[in-house]
From TrEMBL:
Keywords: ATP-binding, DNA replication, DNA-directed DNA polymerase, Metal-binding, Nucleotide-binding, Nucleotidyltransferase, Transferase, Zinc. This is DNA polymerase III subunit gamma/tau. Residues 49-191 form the AAA+ ATPase domain. GO terms for molecular function: ATP binding; DNA binding; DNA-directed DNA polymerase activity; metal ion binding. InterPro entries: AAA+_ATPase (IPR003593), ClpA/B (IPR001270), DNA_pol3_clamp-load_cplx_C (IPR008921), DNA_pol_III_gamma-3 (IPR022754), DNA_pol_III_sug/sutau_N (IPR012763), DNA_pol_III_tau_dom-5 (IPR021029), DNA_Rep/Repair_Clamp_Loader (IPR050238), HLD_clamp_pol_III_gamma_tau (IPR045085). GO terms for biological process: DNA-templated DNA replication. Residues 386-443, 470-513 have a biased composition (Low complexity). It comes from Pandoraea pneumonica. PANTHER family: PROTEIN STICHEL-LIKE 2 (PTHR11669:SF0), REPLICATION FACTOR C / DNA POLYMERASE III GAMMA-TAU SUBUNIT (PTHR11669).
Amino acid sequence: MRKPNAELLQFGMTYQVLARKWRPKGFSTLVGQEHVVRALTHALEQQRLHHAYLFTGTRGVGKTTLSRILAKALNCETGITAEPCGVCRACRAIDEGRFVDYVEMDAASNRGVDEMTSLLEKAVYAPADARFKVYMIDEVHMLTGHAFNAMLKTLEEPPAHVKFILATTDPQKIPVTVLSRCLQFNLKQMPAGHIVSHLTNILGEEGIDNEPQALRLLAKAASGSMRDALSLTDQAIAYAAGPITEVAVRGMLGAIDQSVLVRLLDALKDGSRTDLMAVADEMAERSFSFAAGLQDLGSLLHKIALAQFAPDAVSDDWPEAADVRRLAEAISPEAVQLYYQIATRARGELGLAPDEYTGFSMALLRMAAFTPLLAGGTLAEPPTPQAATRIAAPAAAPARAAAAPSEPMRSAAPAAPAAQPEARRAPAARTSAPTDGAGAPMSPARAALAALNAGRKGTGGRTSGGAGSTGSTAGRNASRPADDAPAGADPEPEPAGTAPASASTDSTATPAPAPRACVYREADGNAPVFTGEWPVLAAELPARGLARELAFQSELTEVAGRALHLRVPLRQLADSATADKLRQVLNEHFGGDVQVHVELGQVGTTAASLAAEAAAARQRAAEQAIADDPLVRELIDEFDAQILPNSIRPVQ
C-alpha cells in the first residue's frame, strides 16, 4: 500500500479555509450586526444577563460566531466582560471547540424528546471548569413538538449557572411559548459594501492581488452571507491560480458580462430585434444562466432608473457608470420601468416556460413588442390628453384627420391662429359634460363619435372645420388628379347660406388651416363613401383586436386613389398582418378593394385622442358640477368636509 506524501499531509492538516481562519474572535472584530453587538455589549457591561438568547437570520451571518463570542465573554478568566481576552484557557478552549462547559448541539440530528431530556438532566449540574454552562442549540426550529415541550420549564427558570443560546434560520417554526422565553435578536444580511471591504482586508493580509470588480461579483453572489463570500473567495483563489480578476470570477460563477446586458438594452433602444435575439443566442452558446441574466438585467435597469431620477446617486466607482448615464438619457423613464417589470416577472415565469431560453427570449420579445418607438428608432413620449389635442402645423405637414369640433366661425371676427386649438377644444368640453341620469361611461369609440357629432350639431350638420376650410379643401381637391379620390366620391355641394372662406378672412391674416372635416354620405347603390374624416370611420368600423387599435390610434395622412396612408405611433401597430386585417374590414365596409399603407411617426388627431379628450372634458365637467352643487357646498361649509380626489365619475 502506497503511503501518502508526508509533506502534503502536513500541509493539508495545517491549512484552514478562510471562513474558519478569519472567524471573528470578539465583538470588536465582528463585521456588521451592529444592533446586536450594541445590545449584548451593554448587557455585559451592566451585568444584565438574560438566561436565554435566540439568534435568527439566514446562513452565514454570524449566529454561531456570536454564540461563541458571548460564551467567551461569560467565561473569560478576566471576568464577565464585553471584550474577552482571547488568550486565557477558557477563551482558547472555546475557540478550539474543546471547552467542556460550552456545548453546541445540532437540533437537526438531535431533535427528539430523548436527546432533549438527556441535555436537561445534565444542565442541573454545576459547570466543571467555568463560570457558566452554555448550551448552544443550532437550527432549533427542527426540534419536535415534544422536545420543545420538554424544555419549556427549564427554559423559563433555568439554574443560575446555565445559559441557553438558540439559533435558527426559520423562527416562524418555533412555538410562541419558546419565543416568549428568549431574548430575540434578528441578524441581518450583510451589505455588499461590508463584504467587499472585509474581503479586501483579508486578501491584503493573505497577500493575494485582486480587482475591486471581482470582489463586488463575489459579494453579490454571496447574497448577504459572509461565510458564503469567504467560501467563494477560497474557490476564486483556486480557480484564478494567481490574482483574482473580474474575468476569472465571471468564468467561475458563470456570471454575465455587463457589456452583454448593455448591448441588449441598446438593441431594445434601437428597435433592432435581430440584434436582440443575437444577444440571447450568444448567452445560450456561452451557457449563461438566463435566470441570473434577468436578475442582472433588473439590477442594471434599477441603476438606469436611479440615474434618471437621482443622477447624483450614480457612483463613478461603478464600472458601468458611463453606460448607465448614456442609457438613462437614451431610454425614456416609462420604458425603463416597463423593462424592469417584465424582467422581474419573467424570472418567476421561467419555470413555466418550455425551457429557460424560450422564457428568456419571450421576455425580450415582450419588451420589444410593448416599446413605443418612432420611425427613427427613438422612444416616443407617452401620449397625454393635452399633447394629443395640440395641432402641429409644419410647413410641409400632410393633411390631418378630423379634429375635435370647434366653435362656429364668424365672418366678422375670425379667431386668431394661435387660439384655434383652444377653440377647437372648448366645444368638446361642453358637449361631453355629464347629463342627468345614471348610465355606463362612454366607450372610446362612442366618446370620439360624440365629440365629432356634437360639433356638427352646433354648425348645422357640419363641423366648423368643414365650414372654415372649404377653400383649402377645394384647393387640395383641385391640385389632386381626378383619379386620386376614392371611387364614387363626388364633390360635396356647398350648403346654402355658407359664405366662402375667403370672405371671412379678407381683413385678417390667413390662419393655419384646420384639419379637414368630412361627412359620410350615401352614393349610388347605398354604398358608403369616404370623404376623409378618418376618426369617425375608425370609430364606426366593426374591427376587433389589433386591427381596431390600428384604426383607432392612427392618423390619415394621404388618400391616393383607393389607397389609404396611415401613420401610427407604435411599432407593433405597423405590422403588415394587422394592416391586412384592417384592409379586409375596409373592403367589407366599402364593398371594394381598398389598400392600406402604414408608417411610423408622430400623430396628431386620432379617434383615440378625441376619445381621451372627450373623457377628460366630461370628467372636468362632472367635478365642476359637483363643486358647484348647492347641497355639496352647504355640506362643505357646515361640516368642514372636503371632496375626495378621484371619487367623482361622470355619468352618461
